[in-house]
Amino acid sequence: MSAQPFVVLDGIAKRWKGALGVQDICLTIEEGSFVALLGPSGCGKSTTLRLLAGLETPDEGRIMIDGADVTHRPASARNLSMVFQSYALFPHLSVAENVMFGMKVRRVPKAERLRSLHRAMEITGLLGFEDRKPNELSGGQRQRVALARAIVAGQRLCLMDEPLSNLDAKLRHAVRKDIKKLQQDLGITVVYVTHDQTEAMSMADKVVLMRDGEIQQIGTPEQLYSQPENTFAAEFVGAPPMALIDGAALPGFSDGHTIGVRAENIVLAETGQGDLQCRVTDCEFLGAETFIGLQHPQARGLTLKVAGLKNIPAGQVIDIVLARETLLSFDKEGRKIPQG
Ligand code: ADP
Ligand code: MG
Fold this sequence. Notes:
With 340 residues, the protein is α+β, with helices and mostly antiparallel strands. The chain has helices at 45-53, 95-105, 110-123, 139-151, 169-186, 197-203, 221-226, 231-236, and strands spanning 7-16, 19-29, 34-38, 60-65, 68-69, 80-83, 157-161, 189-194, 206-211, 214-219, 243-246, 258-261, 266-269, 276-285, 289-295, 299-300, 303-307, 317-322, 328-330. It contains eight helices and 19 strands.
């Protein structure tokens, strides 16, 4: 392993006519890792990826790949493959020709090309579609061709921008696992853009959470889930999100602070014996468990998780207890207060 990270984004900023794209982007990526850029629409994920790809040039900062400063190198000289939201396929070439195009350019022997093609078709569920033209495919199938092409490109760094957004839920789940397995098998480095926290949390070694053009938190999925740096991270990550409660509503906590609690750390209490008295808003049965939505005037996002099927009528008042040792405190600006 080299001493220096495989990819470095050092103080990157990009503006359009003064309007902010991204700023203060500092990120290191280890070779062979899977990094997800996560955040709501418009937060700067695609801009960051396009800067790394060489499709945009930063106004500030430096980009290093494999020890070389590539800040001013074009995309073609960065040794990476890409899968973007808008799949760019050659319309006059078949699926197989599109996928093998890069390998042909690189003069990869035919037997190896066909082997890689077969593997990529298998992984993306496109076996049998080799001879079709792009206009004979659905949007989701075209996106899978683009994915297959990136898989066989043979680069050590692969950039993906919401590659699964055109697939239906079931296929998305399956291809998600395939991409992850492939990344591990091939030992390649993937930078993956998504607005879907489930995707980021389930695939990435490292999640980079963004908002309004800036990084909010970088960490493992576990760190983002249980130690969110701020209330934005607390509410963006996890399903359900972390509940946030005004400190004034809880004995032993100061007002002005916000208290964060995960659903699994909330339990039903005897009437009058709980920390908070809430009103049931809805019950969502998910098979193995039921999420019970709760309303309290000084809290938001309160959800109680119970095993199996549970039906409590909306409007019913219940008492809940919060597992004290799991609670997080945030200051007035929403930043996590370090625990002593
Ligand atoms: P995301 O991928 O997270 O949805 P983007 O990176 O596409 O967000 O966009 C970040 C911000 O930069 C948005 O405010 C967007 O409108 C702006 N932006 C992106 N590309 C351009 C461009 N080519 N010209 C002007 N503004 C842009
Ligand atoms: Mg985008």
